[in-house]
Amino acid sequence: MPLHVSNLQDSIAVSAELEKLLARLGAKALAAVALPPQTEVGVALMDDSRIGELNRAYRGIDAPTDVLAFPLSEPGEDGERWPPEREEEHYLGDVAVSLETAARQAAAQGHPLEREVAYLVAHGILHLAGYDHECEQGARLMRAKEEEILAGVDRAAARPRLPRTTKVGRRGEKARAYLALQGIDAAELLGAAWEARRYAHAPYSGFAVGAALLGRSGAIYRGCNLENASYGLTLCAERAALAQAVLGGERGVAAVAVVARGDGLHAPCGACRQALAEFGPNLTVITQKKEGGDFLVFSLAELLPVPFRL
Ligand code: THU
């Protein structure tokens, strides 16, 4: 079971329904952020005074809050692996939830406590997986993922399904609906990719490519292709952008935009699909051939259904 729930309070009863909901939520949340199913997360249910102590100790805020996330490792920590490993298991970290604050918020929203706690736990797990709401785009991505996770466990939260991908990608309204459900701003990402393309070093092929990656935090990382007189050394724009995102501390990629002019369908090459799958097997791929023009939207899972895994 991916979630290990401990109840550290006795002011609010933990219903069997809540236990069941959290048991379902663990697997859904991990799948939604493409973490391996053996990943584990600790969930501590507590009261306001206890979460207040944690908030003071770790964030210097002397007040209770609804949810806190404690990743086992931070990006950039020497020798840390992602996802982290503890013994044979992948232990992601811990999520603390105040049931007292959750109960107040549930009453204010007019929905059951179970739904509020499920939402808070999903929010905490997303933080552990590298999502962040500090910037506007990050908040949109996180909100969309929360909805996706909750829709999978709670019928009352059901939302329209993501449209199925088609062989030639999606254009127009269907593409916009797909992106909106995921909280992705395609125009911004495509703009960054066209900007990156200007830096392309492509004197041998004359084919300039720009890429922009949307990290889970909501930050954008750019890349361009980099050719060499020894042709085989060429680095594609997507992989150049990936290096930037990893260095930026991202733990996953939500989307990539790839732009180039000319004929043909400029979806990422096979090598780049494999490289991208490492950071988001179900990430969204957007391609465009004319600035401000039509674009195609794919899911990477469609472009690379069976990636190589160790
Ligand atoms: N290229 C990319 O940047 N990304 C891809 O996914 C495919 C190809 C670059 C490599 C080379 O510089 C040029 O396009 C022509 O192959």
* Unreliable segments of 5+ consecutive residues: none
Remind me, CATH topology of the largest domain? Collagenase (Catalytic Domain)
Element string (H = helix, E = strand): EHEHEEHHHHHEEHEHEEH
User: What is the subunit arrangement here?
Assistant: single chain
The CATH homologous superfamily of the largest domain is called Metalloproteases ("zincins"), catalytic domain
CATH class of the largest domain: Alpha Beta
Give the distance, in angstroms, between the N- and C-terminal Cα atoms.
23 Å
Tally of extended strands? 9
Ligand kinds: tetrahydrodeoxyuridine
What class, by secondary structure content? alpha/beta
Average of per-residue pLDDT values: 91
> If classified by CATH, what would the architecture of the largest domain be?
3-Layer(aba) Sandwich
Q: How would a crystallographer describe the biggest sheet? A: 5 strands, mixed
What is the percent of helical residues?
25-40%
Quick structural overview:
This protein has 310 residues and is α/β, with parallel strands linked by helices.
Properties at a glance:
single chain, about 300 residues, alpha/beta, Collagenase (Catalytic Domain), Cytidine Deaminase, domain 2, 5-stranded mixed β-sheet, 10 helices, about 40% helix
